[in-house]
Amino acid sequence: MIGEQRSVRAFIEAEELVRDEIEVEVRPSAPTTDPRSGWPLTVPPLVILWVGERPLAVRLRAVVAISRFPTSPRVANLIEAEASAAGFAVQRMAEAGLWRLFSQPPRPRRVGL
């Protein structure tokens, strides 16, 4: 249980962690530029929580997507509670949707929308 809580905390805080079959992977995102000013903008990293070889949750910007049918329901519930408490929007989706989220780099979003 304590190891699961550490994994969830690492996921929320975007820190790499490997503990037994749970792994938190942080993929840095390339910086982008503000089209109006030309100033460089940092893009938050993409964070993936793996259980074995399957993704359980993906964090992209201010949204956390969790597998609808998780391999580890207790960890999924911990992620949902911690992400909501931290102010992230939480979305349940099929595992195939999680794979699609990190198979391509995130698109830059327009400022002010």
Structural commentary:
This protein is an alpha+beta fold and 113 residues long. It has one domain. Helix content is 29%, strand content 32%. The protein has 3 helices and 8 strands. The strands form 2 sheets. It has a 6-stranded mixed sheet, sandwiched between helices. It has a two-stranded antiparallel ribbon with strand order 3-4. Helix 2 links the parallel strand 7 and strand 8. Helix 1 crosses helix 2. The protein is globular. The mean pLDDT is 89.
Short characterization:
Helices cover 29% and strands 32% of the residues.
Overall average residue pLDDT: 89
Strand content: 25-35%
Main β-sheet description: 6 strands, mixed
Across the major sheet, the strand order is 1-2-5-6-7-8
**Low confidence ranges:** none
**Whole-Å distance between the termini?**
40 Å
What characteristic shape results from the CA principal axes? globular
Class by alpha and beta content: alpha+beta
